[in-house]
Amino acid sequence: MSANFSITYDARAINKPRVRGIGRYLYELVGHISRLRTVDIRLLGDRPDQPFQTPPTVPFRRHVRSLKGQHLGTWEQFYVPWRVRRSPPHIFHAPATTLPLLQNAPTVVTVHDIKPWARELDPWRRIYWHKVVTRGLEKADAIITPSASTCADIASSWPHLVQKIKVIPHGLSDPYMGAAGATRTASEILSVSPYLLYVGGAAKNKRFDIALEVFSVLKRKWKSLQLLACGFSTRATKKISLERALADSVRFMPFVTDEQMVDLYSNAAAVLYPTEYEGFGFPVLEAQACGTPIIVSSSAGSLAELPGPEVYFVASQDLSDWSDAAEYCVARKIKGEHDSRRAADWASQYTWWRSASSHLELYDSLA
What we know:
This protein has 367 residues and is of the alpha/beta class. It has two domains: 6-171 and 351-366, Glycogen Phosphorylase B (Rossmann fold, 3-Layer(aba) Sandwich), CATH 3.40.50; 174-347, Rossmann fold. It has helices at 22-36, 74-86, 115-118, 123-139, 148-157, 187-190, 208-219, 234-238, 244-247, 258-267, 282-289, 319-335, 340-347, 352-366, and strands at residues 6-10, 40-45, 61-64, 91-94, 107-110, 142-145, 165-167, 195-198, 226-230, 250-253, 270-273, 294-297, 311-314. The strands form two sheets. Strands 3-2-1-4-5-6-7 form a seven-stranded parallel beta sheet. It is globular.
């Protein structure tokens, strides 16, 4: 790969105040690629009023344009092809599943999961996902997925795309490396202990209701136990109605930095992650890196691919299973029996260096 090798990214996921999910993936990807090789990184955004969230050492060129009708796909179907044709890169990478039909450079797309095709959509969005985006996948040169589970889902829906798919797992962000056994305490942030930690936010498929039911059961045994719920905006919090018995014991968290999440994970008795389906599952890696047990559904897509030493799989709809697992974890936490070091060692195999190197190998093969 030459020093002037150029990669253009659809960077809307990091052209915003904070990054999470796909934004984290792109943030880590461009950061590690820029440290592995000298490349010309070009970021395309749609928010002129917002910065690009990138590691401070990443040199890049930015191109930002806001268009009317962006919710209808105008930005990716018109602006992106125009921008790519005007300054052709060696690779164009769409990191968030959607991509343009007109592809003026070798095109890579990352499909994190196929949930958008399964949702109930209005007529226009149904056409867009089932016709336009699907046709874009067919025209792309390569499809990246973060898990074998997502790869299998794509193969089941579109068998003719199998030869294009490359599975490249995500990695752990730097704050989580070596986090197990951290001496910082969550009480420095919230003055709360002991507690269960819920991650996932307010989306229905994340199933916060299951976390509340499990917490309610355990609360009968440990009166001082609290539940910290991460990923809730102020608006989302206002829509949640809690039983009077739980109202003073549930704490909703707005945006939390990775450094604060290390504290929260490390000091939790257990992490509840009752999501119905995930294309990867960052919280599983993060909890293991911090040496904390995490309880997940055994049928939640890719999570079965992350069998860390302190990962507990339970039947998705069985409240008794969830409660028993959580009770077991809390009891072990009190006794200091968590296998923190082995969990952290297991999680350390997932690095962004390895992920970025695999991305570069794929780019090389297509340019």
